[in-house]
Amino acid sequence: GVGLFFFAVAEPMWHYIGPNRYTRDKYMPDNELAQWAINLTFFHWGIHGWVVYAMVAVIMGFLSFRKGMPMTMKSCFYPLIGDRIYGWLGDFIDVFSILTTLFGVCTSLGLGTMQLNKGLHFL
Q: Rg for the chain (alpha carbons), in Å?
């Protein structure tokens, strides 16, 4: 949510005025350039951005409900490393996934907090 809150305005503006292949054309009208900026943002936040989450959910759901495995990230690696997910390697995968999720959430909240702070100081 914070990622969309932060980048909903920042990304289209970056594509509109930032250095890209569309802003190099000096004869492109502003309305067409703005439309390209919105299209690029929709492409970036579109279905391919959510495929990663859906893939992990499908793998976890299949292995949990059909194979009776625990619903943890290490279960997603069962087809690759087999029964070694129950050892130290599986524990490492679980700890690593928890830490990366934690850092991702903290970064997202930090960006949102900075934007709210700037907006309140502007008011």
A: 21
